[in-house]
Each structure stands twice: as structure tokens, then as C-alpha cells.
Automatic annotation (TrEMBL):
Belongs to the FAD-binding monooxygenase family. It is an enzyme of class 1 (oxidoreductase). The keyword Glycoprotein does not apply. Its EC number is 1.14.13.-. PANTHER family: FAD_NAD(P)-BINDING DOMAIN-CONTAINING PROTEIN-RELATED, L-ORNITHINE N(5)-MONOOXYGENASE-RELATED. Keywords: FAD, Flavoprotein, Monooxygenase, Oxidoreductase. This is Flavin-containing monooxygenase. It holds the Pfam family FMO-like. It comes from Streptomyces bullii. InterPro entries: FAD-bind_Monooxygenase_sf, FAD/NAD-bd_sf, Flavin_mOase-like. One of its GO terms (molecular function) is monooxygenase activity. The keyword Oxidoreductase applies.
């Protein structure tokens, strides 16, 4: 192949977590085999590959946190651990024959829209290619965020993020700082508390924590699910239905969540007997404003004598001394950041260049917005999985991913129906209208009215992350592509290397 030629595929999928693998399965089920999955790491799994910290597990029940088209009757626990979810994704990869399509160690460094040929020119760490359609499935929990703490660079000990766990570092007997109190932190704290010498939790905002009713799934249950698959479907349906009924309290009647707050207070009171510590751990915002966390061992761990809870968060590092906002100091050997991810400012957006030469990050500088959570104006034949306002506060993201995969499949069908070199570009007024409806609905939700600052909100205070409705509503909204919401672009040229070869033969 000549230097100016490169591989061309019909669809390029970016990322191999739930979204990327789901897209690959759906493409194959639609009869499309001319696609690749570009993965920057050396294995599949996305966030369930990256997050291998002690105690890592899902807070959504296993039978709901799996693909409807790939049920797993052998989940070992009601809430599965990271290793089991990662193994499930490897299993899906094998069962659906995805390995030949996957390009590991192929990080996308740039993708730019070619308006002349109506395709995407993609640069990766393993070489270049082009694609008619790009499906970006990098996910919002893929790039860790570490706050800019004065003096952190001079810290003489070990520093790492929960999503980049240093398994070579032995925490035994060490003085450890845990920075953050999110979903990762409440799993890490009880896992490492018994082995560390001293654990100092730097808490900026206390979370609401409910008991995690986890148990082993019996052999009899698993046998039943294998022999009678409809029983697993029934179990999944019940889990889904319960969560659908909860949605209105989050989206329309946040005051109804007061009862849930009482349950959380009782959960805390059972383990935390010290009134002063209980006061420090009690949130001052409505439950649900931040993600409700599930743990039955977080509070007991905080009550142990080798654990200190420091309020105000970490503000400065002076050598091996960590200083909290309230002036409290602690001598530390290792710092673990459980400070979340770049969710509303995803780094992949800086690498996507649209029709007018602007990056997606530039277009989204005032806030992310995409038509039906998938298509951004000015970025033809590009769609994202788990895009703006598709997140959930109380149910399984796999439900939302599958809805978006249905939208993706119909998008490609529409391209086939239109025929020729064709692309669809979301109309700006359609994107604005969709986003306006979403934001109007968001005004009443607990995420906007609950009195907290969460990672759901962007730098401008807008909630560009959460879907303000049920998963059923989103499924209906993404069942098919409405061509009236798109501009149809056409070009006579083909995008692949064959075009150039044909031109050379003609000459």
C-alpha cells in the first residue's frame, strides 16, 4: 500500500468497554462486519479493566448490569465484583466473535471530518485509517482526575489514583491518605483499613450511604437460571421495574426522598456511636443530589481506632505533611486519590475535529449537548455512546447503552436507504430543541434542587450528565432516527483507497 493510502472501514468504534463491545455486537447482528474497535489499552473491559482497586464492585445488581442479549446465569453474587464483570466482558468478546475486529494498543490521537469525501480520517498510535462512521464509546469514567493541590509535586511518598491502582506498593503498616468520598473511596476504605497503620480520610463532602444488601447467589438459583432462562429474565425485569418506579422521586418529587434519608441516618447511627463523628459524616443536602452510595462496611471502618476523618478536604501538601482546609495536618506515606474522572470535559473531545475545523471540546466549551445523547451538530456521521444527559442516578447504564445501540443501528440503516456517499449531520436547531427540553425537565430534579455540587454539573453549573426521566422514556426517544432532525450531505467521491487506485488506472 502506498504511503498516502490507508485502511478504510465502514465503522470505527472507539473504546472496548460496555459501550464499545455492545456496539460491535450490534453491528455484527445487523450484518455489518467491516468495522474495527480501537482500544488504547492492551485488553478489553474499559472502566472494569482500569479500576482494579481493593473492594472494587458494582452498585447495580448483576442481573441488571449485563446485556439483555448476553444474559449470565452464573453471576456469583447479587452485586458482582470487578473481576467477575471484567470476565463477563471478555466472555462477550469471545462468544460474539469480536476479537478479529479489535485493535489493542491503538489509542486515537486525532479524528477529523473529511468534508470532501464525507468520511473520518483517524490517526492512532498504531497507524492511520478512515471510516464512514465513527462510534465514540470512550465512556465518561475513563480519564482520572487529580485535583491541582499546591505542593503535591514535592510529596516524597507514593501517589496514585484509584483507577490506576499501584499493586506493587504494599500498604501494610503505612500511613495512608484517602482523598475523596465517592463510590470508589467507600469501597477502598473498608478494604485497606485492616492492613494500614493509619488511614486519614480527607472528606470534602460526606455522601449519603445506604446498606449494600449483597449475598452469594446460590448454586440452586444459578442452576435454575441456566435450565429456565425466563427466570433470569424475570429477575432482571423485577430489578428494572423497581428502579423505574423510583424515578419520579428523583425527577419530580424530591421531597419524597426524605424517607430514604431516614434509612441512611439509621444506617450511619448503627455503626457510628460518636456524636461528633456522626455530625461530620452527615450530609447537608437532599439525598440523591449526589449518587447514593451502597456499603455495609464503610461506616464500621470509619469507626475503627486507626482511622481519622478530616473535613474540609485536602488543601496543601508540605513535604510528607498533608494539610486540610480546616488546618488539620497528617504525616502520610501514600496518597490515594478517589477524586473521580473528567466527565463533563472528556479529553477525547479535544481530539475530534468537526466540519468547520473546530474540536468537539471547543464546540462544547459552554456545555455538552447532543441530539438524543448521540449526535453533535457539525460532526457528521459521528455519534457517541453514553453521551450528554444519558447518565442515570438510580439504575443500570447498560439499559441506556442498549437504547443508544438501537439508535446507532437505525442511523446506519438510514445511510443505506439514502444510498451513495452520504452523511447525516444533526441540525443545530434540533440539538438545541432536544437540549432545551432536557434542561427544562432537569429544573425540578433532585440533582438540580438538592443543594449539592456534584460531578453531574459542569463548570457552568449545568447538569449535562444525567437523564431526567425513565429508561423506558429514553428507549422510546431513541427507537429510530428522525431524518427531519438531520441535514443530509452527499458527495460523489468514495473515501477508501480503491478510489485512488481507480483514478490511477484511469490515468
Amino acid at each position: 500500500m502506498a504511503e498516502d493510502e490507508h485502511e478504510h472501514v465502514r465503522v470505527a468504534v472507539v473504546g472496548s468497554g460496555f459501550g464499545g463491545l455492545g456496539a460491535a455486537v450490534r453491528l455484527r447482528r445487523e450484518g455489518i462486519t467491516d468495522f474495527v474497535v480501537l482500544e488504547r489499552a492492551d485488553s478489553v473491559g474499559g472502566t472494569w479493566r482500569d479500576n482494579s482497586y481493593p473492594g472494587c464492585a458494582c452498585d447495580v445488581p448483576s442481573h441488571l448490569y449485563s446485556f439483555s442479549f448476553a444474559p449470565n446465569p452464573d453471576w456469583p453474587r447479587t452485586f458482582s465484583g470487578q473481576q467477575h464483570i471484567r470476565a463477563y466482558l471478555e466472555h462477550v468478546t469471545d462468544v460474539f466473535g469480536l476479537r478479529p475486529h479489535i485493535r489493542l494498543n491503538s489509542e486515537v490521537t486525532r479524528m477529523a471530518w473529511n468534508g470532501e469525501r464525507l468520511c473520518w480520517d483517524i490517526e492512532t498510535s498504531a497507524g492511520n485509517l478512515s471510516a464512514d462512521v465513527v462510534v465514540s464509546a470512550t465512556g465518561p469514567l475513563s480519564d482520572p482526575k487529580i485535583p491541582d493541590i499546591p505542593g503535591l509535586d514535592s510529596f516524597p511518598g507514593t501517589v496514585f489514583h484509584s483507577a490506576r491502582w499501584d499493586h506493587d506498593y504494599d500498604l501494610t503498616g503505612k500511613r495512608v491518605a484517602m482523598v475523596g468520598t465517592g463510590a470508589s473511596a467507600i469501597q477502598i476504605v473498608p478494604s485497606i483499613q485492616p492492613v494500614v497503620g493509619k488511614l486519614t480520610l480527607f472528606q470534602r463532602t460526606p455522601p449519603w450511604v445506604l446498606p449494600r444488601v449483597d449475598r452469594a447467589i446460590s448454586g440452586a438459583e444459578r442452576w435454575l437460571h441456566r435450565q429456565l432462562p425466563f427466570t433470569a429474565q424475570l429477575r432482571r425485569g423485577l430489578l428494572w421495574g423497581i428502579r423505574e418506579l423510583q424515578v419520579q422521586a428523583f425527577t419530580k418529587r424530591p421531597n419524597e426522598l426524605g424517607f430514604v434519608e431516614q434509612l441512611a441516618r439509621r444506617n450511619m447511627a448503627r455503626a457510628i456511636k460518636d456524636p461528633a463523628l456522626r455530625a461530620r459524616l452527615t450530609p447537608d443536602y437532599r439525598i440523591g443530589c449526589k449518587r447514593i452510595l451502597l456499603s455495609s462496611d464503610y461506616y464500621p471502618a470509619l469507626a475503627r481506632p486507626n482511622v481519622d476523618v478530616v473535613t474540609g478536604g485536602l488543601s496543601e501538601v508540605r513535604g510528607s505533611t498533608l494539610v486540610a482546609a480546616d488546618g488539620t495536618t497528617a504525616e502520610i506515606d501514600a496518597i490515594i486519590f478517589g477524586t473521580g474522572f473528567h466527565v463533563t470535559d472528556m479529553p477525547i473531545a479535544e481530539r475530534v475535529v468537526g466540519a468547520d475545523g473546530k474540536t468537539l471540546a471547543e464546540v462544547w466549551k459552554d456545555g455538552m449537548e447532543a441530539l438524543r445523547g448521540a449526535s453533535a451538530a457539525g460532526f457528521p456521521n459521528w455519534m457517541t455512546i453514553i453521551g450528554p444527559n444519558t447518565g442515570l442516578g438510580n439504575s443500570s447504564m447498560i439499559l441506556m447503552i442498549e437504547s443508544q445501540l438501537t439508535y446507532m443501528a437505525d442511523y446506519i440503516r438510514q445511510l443505506d436507504v439514502l444510498g451513495g456517499r452520504v452523511a447525516l449531520d444533526a441540525r443545530p436547531n434540533a440539538v438545541r430543541a432536544w437540549n432545551h427540553r432536557v434542561q427544562e425537565r432537569m429544573k425540578r430534579t433532585v440533582w438540580n434542587t438538592g443543594g449539592c455540587t456534584s460531578w453531574y454539573l459542569d463548570a457552568n453549573g449545568r447538569n449535562t450528565t444525567i437523564w431526567p426521566g425513565t429508561t423506558s422514556e429514553f428507549r422510546r426517544a431513541t427507537r429510530r432516527v428522525d431524518l427531519a432532525e438531520y441535514d443530509v450531505l452527499r458527495a460523489p467521491a468514495r473515501c477508501d483507497a480503491a478510489e485512488r487506485q481507480d483514478a490511477e488506472v484511469s490515468a
